[in-house]
Amino acid sequence: MMKTREEALAYGLSFPNTYQEAPFHDPNWQLVRVKGSKKAFLWTYERNGCINLNVKVSPEWRDFWRSTYEAVTAG
Questions:
Q1: 70: which DSSP letter?
Q2: What is the pTM of this model?
Q3: Pairing mode, strands 18-21 and 40-47
Q4: What is the pLDDT of residue 30?
Q5: How far apart are CA 37 and CA 17, in angstroms?
Q6: Nearest-angstrom CA–CA distance, 56 and 58
Q7: How many whole angstroms separate alpha carbon 12 and alpha carbon 60?
Q8: Predicted confidence (pLDDT) per residue in 12-52, tens digit
Q9: Burial class (CB in 10 A: 0-12, 13-18, 19+), 58
C-alpha cells in the first residue's frame, strides 16, 4: 500500500519509458509522463494536508475503482 507521494511517483516511474516533471512551476504538482508522446498518466499534489493522486485510466476501470473505494472520486 502506498502512503506517500514518493511511493506513488516511484510506482509510476517503474513503468517503461516514463519520467517525472513539474510543468506548472509549482513543486506541489508532480507528474509522471510517457517519453515520446509526453502524455501524463499520474498527477500528484498536496491539498488540505493530504496527498492527492489523479490517475488516467480507461472508463471501465474508472467506474470499477469508484464503485469499490469511497475515496476514489472524479478528478
A1: T
A2: 0.85
A3: unpaired
A4: 96
A5: 10
A6: 7
A7: 20
A8: 999 999 999 999 988 899 999 999 999 999 999 999 988 99
A9: exposed
